[in-house]
Specification:
Elements: H1 3-19, H2 26-29, H3 35-51, E1 56-62, H4 66-72, E2 78-83, E3 87-88, E4 93-94, E5 103-112, H5 123-129, E6 130-140, H6 157-162, E7 167-172, E8 188-193, E9 196-202, H7 210-222, E10 233-238, E11 243-244, E12 250-254, E13 260-265
Parallel strand pairs: 1-10, 3-7, 4-13
Antiparallel strand pairs: 1-2, 5-6, 5-10, 5-11, 6-7, 8-9, 8-12, 12-13
Helix pairs in contact: 1-3, 5-7
Length: 266
């Protein structure tokens, strides 16, 4: 893809977000696109949102579970950007029409107190830089069709990364914990929709340890001259499959002693 292709794809995705009308698969339009192209499209969206007055409040890490990596035939996670207008309060209701096809995932969120950056970031660096961890819900959306109606091809990881790793929102629970207060590998959640349990999982599903997920993110960002800033939220990756959230959905993610997170969709 050319830089012009990257800019056009970003513009199309931004328009889809505003209108609620999904675009065709970018991998259908550009069959030879690769990982660098996908992040170039995401970066063009980032620049456009900053020009619109948005600010970055954090980062998300996706595709951390082996099951999702196998499904998409990749062996590395992906990442996306959290903007200020993506933050929802615990217990809030998402307005009708805000998202196209919302889904949610349960995750452990890290909030930083000092920068994390560099190609040699270690586990100890992440722990030292973490202010607290909290239960969280990530809201996903897709501005790209999940399945092409003509070819029946499904979107690939390149489509998803281009679409800001499918990110749409973040909800933090009220509880705040020191990063070493719990063994995060054993922190889990029972995620329910309208009172019915839909998914369960454990933190170990995230690269065997959510801390290692943040290490991966910091090292990947270093390749692009970026770093995690103080006060930013890091969604370390989901340990459940996405739960569909049609209108009228009430979501409760019960993390036990770690806390809980609720969000509803009008």
């Amino acid at each position: 893809m050319t830089p012009q292709d990257h800019s056009q794809a970003a513009a199309d995705l931004l328009r889809a977000e505003q209108t609620g009308e999904q675009i065709d698969l970018l991998t259908k339009r550009h069959p030879q696109m690769g990982m660098n192209d996908a992040y170039a499209v995401q970066n063009a969206i980032y620049r456009a949102k900053l020009e619109q007055g948005r600010s970055v409040v954090g980062w998300k890490i996706g595709l951390t579970s082996r099951a999702m990596q196998y499904a998409l035939k990749i062996d590395i996670p992906d990442s996306g950007i959290l903007f200020d207008d993506m933050v929802f309060d615990h217990g809030a209701t998402v307005p009708k029409g805000r998202f196209i096809q919302p889904r949610i995932e349960a995750e452990i969120a890290f909030v930083t107190k000092s920068p994390i950056g560099g190609a040699d970031v270690t586990r100890d660096d992440v722990i030292a830089a973490t202010d607290y961890v909290a239960p969280s819900i990530e809201i996903l959306d897709t501005r790209i069709l999940r399945v092409d109606p003509e070819t029946k091809a499904t979107r690939t990881v390149f489509d998803t990364i281009s679409d800001n790793a499918a990110n749409a929102g973040v909800v933090l629970g009220a509880e705040r914990h020191a990063v070493d207060a719990f063994d995060l590998r054993w922190v889990g959640a029972i995620t329910s929709r309208n009172g019915d349990v839909e998914e369960t999982g454990l933190g170990a599903g995230v690269l065997n340890d959510p801390v290692e997920s943040v290490v991966w993110l910091a090292r990947r960002m270093a390749q692009y001259g970026q770093s995690i800033e103080p006060g930013q939220i890091i969604l370390s990756g989901s340990f459940i499959r996405p739960v569909e959230c049609p209108s009228g959905s009430e979501i409760d993610a019960d993390f036990g002693l770690f806390g809980s997170v609720d969000i509803a969709f009008a």
